[in-house]
Amino acid sequence: MCTIFFLGHTLGTILAIYLVLSPCAVIAIIYLTWFYAFDLDISRQGGRRFEFFRYLKTWHFFRDYFPIKLIRTKRLDPKRNYVFGYHPHGIMCIGAWLNFATEATGFSQLFPGIKPYLLTLTLMFKFPFFRDFVMAGGVCEVSKESVEHVLSREGTGNAAVIVIGGAAESLDARPGSHKLTLKNRKGFVKYALKHGASLVPVYSFGENELYCQMDNPEGSWLRSLQKKLQRMLSFAPPVFFGRGLLPGSLGFLPHKRSVCTVVGAPVIVKRVVPNPSQKEIDRLHKKYITGLINLFQQHKHRYGIPKETRLIIQ
């Protein structure tokens, strides 16, 4: 399963080339023509989700491997729309996928009437087959058009789930780290104000424990190279490793560590602000950070995090 997330774009491209050169060439060409000529925009117009895909038993095996749990602290009103801020990014956002793109952890039972849309890089929707796979779980682009579609054109009871720290935050994903890229990330706050959507902080305890990463402190040659590649490719390639197939071996399987994703209390946005000022954005951003810090402080002791540990927001 992790191979699909790590190499899905490559595997999808190879499969497309293979089919074009195979006896199924006509079908493959029709699919690729439809994809690139007529269907590219669907990923920013709500995507193409399939509920049967979200409920596949396969996700239960994936969930139990770690295991992964989703915890609700407050009920959410389905008559409102929401922007969920997911933290931390980790290496592969495994907790985000299992909790919000599948029903393995019971999202719909915990939050009845709320439909989650996990948003990710636009680049992920340029690869054949892979883009259909992720969209089946309700995943869409994290573009302006996509966010505004979820928050306005789809009615109410929708949740745009955004991994706020993005590629930059993945470079700090390692066991024991609670460092977030959030201080200057305010676009999601602006969307919330423009559409009257409430902000919901989400912290996934254990996400950073799933993989180890080569040391890359600020100023190092590796960090500099990663930042340069991030500017070129729109994502940062962390140098990471997990466990192998054999006991004690290294590989790219995630470690078997418990992940508990805690959904905090919403920061209510009481009215629509069509053109929010910077002051209004900053004020709501500050409230969101306060809510996220409180969430971390209130729950960290349950997951073996030392009392003196604090979130580092940069």
Automatic annotation (TrEMBL):
<dbReference type="GO" id="GO:0005789">
    <property type="term" value="C:endoplasmic reticulum membrane"/>
</dbReference>
<dbReference type="GO" id="GO:0006071">
    <property type="term" value="P:glycerol metabolic process"/>
</dbReference>
<comment type="similarity">
    <text>Belongs to the diacylglycerol acyltransferase family.</text>
</comment>
<keyword id="KW-0443">Lipid metabolism</keyword>
<dbReference type="GO" id="GO:0004144">
    <property type="term" value="F:diacylglycerol O-acyltransferase activity"/>
</dbReference>
<keyword id="KW-0472">Membrane</keyword>
<keyword id="KW-0319">Glycerol metabolism</keyword>
<dbReference type="InterPro" id="IPR007130">
    <property type="entry name" value="DAGAT"/>
</dbReference>
<keyword id="KW-0808">Transferase</keyword>
<keyword id="KW-1133">Transmembrane helix</keyword>
<feature type="transmembrane region" description="Helical">
    <location>
        <begin position="15"/>
        <end position="38"/>
    </location>
</feature>
<keyword id="KW-0256">Endoplasmic reticulum</keyword>
<comment type="pathway">
    <text>Lipid metabolism.</text>
</comment>
<comment type="pathway">
    <text>Glycerolipid metabolism; triacylglycerol biosynthesis.</text>
</comment>
<protein>
    <recommendedName>
        <fullName>Acyltransferase</fullName>
        <ecNumber>2.3.1.-</ecNumber>
    </recommendedName>
</protein>
<dbReference type="GO" id="GO:0019432">
    <property type="term" value="P:triglyceride biosynthetic process"/>
</dbReference>
<dbReference type="Pfam" id="PF03982">
    <property type="entry name" value="DAGAT"/>
</dbReference>
<keyword id="KW-0812">Transmembrane</keyword>
<keyword id="KW-0444">Lipid biosynthesis</keyword>
<keyword id="KW-0012">Acyltransferase</keyword>
